Amino acid sequence: MPFQAAAHSFGKLYTLPVPVWMYLYGAAAALALSFLMIVYFVGAPARARRNFQTLRLPSACNVLRTPLLLRALQLLSIALLLLSIASGLIGSANSYANFNMTFFWIVVLLGYTYWCALFGNSYDLLNPWRAIIGALQRLAPNAFTGCRSYPPWLGYYPAVLLYMALVWMELFGNVHPLTLSVMLVIYTIISLAGAWWWGEQAWFRYCDFLGVLFRVVGRIAPLHWAGDGFRLRQPFIGLLEEPCPRPSLLVFILFMLSSTAIDGMHETVFWVRLYWYDVVNLLKPLVGADPARTYRLFKMLYLAFQSLALLASPLAYLSVYIALLWLAKRLVGSQIPLRRLCLEFAYPLVPIAFVYNLTHYYTLALGQGPAILRLASDPFGYGWNLLGTGTRFASPMLLDAGNIWHTQVALILLGHIVSVYLAHLVALRLFSGARAATVSQLPVLILMMLYTTAGLWILSLPIQAGVWVPRS
Amino acid sequence: MLGLLFIAFRPAPQVAASVEESRSALAPTPQASPAAAPGLAELIVKNATLVSGPSRIKVRQGDAVTLRVTSDQDDELHLHGYDLEAQLQPGVAANLSFIADRSGRFDLELHRSHLELAVVEVEPIP
Predict the structure, then answer these.
(1) Which of A15, A21, A398 sits opposite B10 (nearest CB)?
(2) A131, A229, A452, B80: which is deepest, by most CB within 10 A?
(3) Domain edges within chain B
């Protein structure tokens, strides 16, 4: 009996796996670059202690924050949310002809993430759910001040759970335009209820996972709002402004890494065989040998296996993280509690997590993203041409596979080197003496090498072709 | 240092061997018809299932490729990326011929049966 390999919910990836020689080269280069970084800091530890320069932009730029413009953008944001919901309900069932699939999965989830990485997080101002609540607050000023105070032990875990739910739907939910609309409606209800129960401030700070995601990614942007004006700063350096406030946010960051890893892995030959050979053979004695009956059971268990892998994946990354930071603490003989060390080194992981995402999805964003112009002209797939852009980008933009490989490996290396650099700056701040800082960085280097090599390795795995026929 | 590593790890392009390999990958599986022209992949579909032919078709960029698909039902054949389409009639072989000028991994799909029939992997020329 054939088994249809579960496809990514939306968008066809056309990238070929990175060749093995390039993967090995990338891993070796990551190692070499890491040691160059150590040498750089051993030579002049004082380099780390300079003040980071920022460049103040002319105050004319502040026009971007005028209330009138923000109000207009918030209205647009609400309108786009409503359009996304409506187009799934009444529009075409074809994912590629309906506005909402491309808009949500590609423009918001990928495009806006990259936008925030360049221009800083603007989501807190444009968040449609926040704007809706803001409008409701005008009618009923005390409706969203909270019935209960937010329990501190919950931290960012609601955001982690909601983020997990979204990725689960993305990978295994077989989402169609209608499903997406239902998801958006449910999320709207959850947001309103959550903001009513715990108060608007707590909800959007700890629970609204998109807000948390864009806030984390926005820290790497060179552009940032300093309260009185825009400033330019060194890219990525915003990650050092303050340590990660809570362990739950560390888990969130690790899930950014691990969910992309699972997404990259779950369609590969390696993954499919891991289950259909190894796990199934392990379970066979327990279930019996009747192929017709057991196949259906194993297919159901496959979903359970994949879901478990997705939910447990941040724990795998977390255990490696804690083990190596514990080792760093022992090597230096530091008195700093392990918990604090774990929080201090959390943000420096964001560049690796970001390039994981970028290498996996930038071809998808470039290939499918421009279709939004066509879809904006015909959001329901009825054949309209409202804006006159109906024929733009009729065929997707495809990049050459060789260029993609080189870009992917280069991006992974860039993320790695930035993460190593930031971690070293944190170490110099935490541990007294350059020697202790350098020694502490050996386990951290191993940690980042593991994450980076895992990312490269996943990129190099061959992908399962169309239909998988398990041997009975 | 990086340059040295790059050179050290970069294998010599084995053009002749790879072409041979891609030919063999293109040839239909043993149970399919033995008369296989180079660059031709024959796929046979029954009950919305691929019963004969390769599910992974490997070619090199620039190759002339023909995908010959026979189904027992009316259907619509679509090669993503290249955006090529062909109508299938029951029992009649439909040919999809093209020059593989774009590298990448492209799905070959039967729209009506919602079947991802195979993938065409076009290896880039180094």
Answers:
(1) A21
(2) A452
(3) 2-123
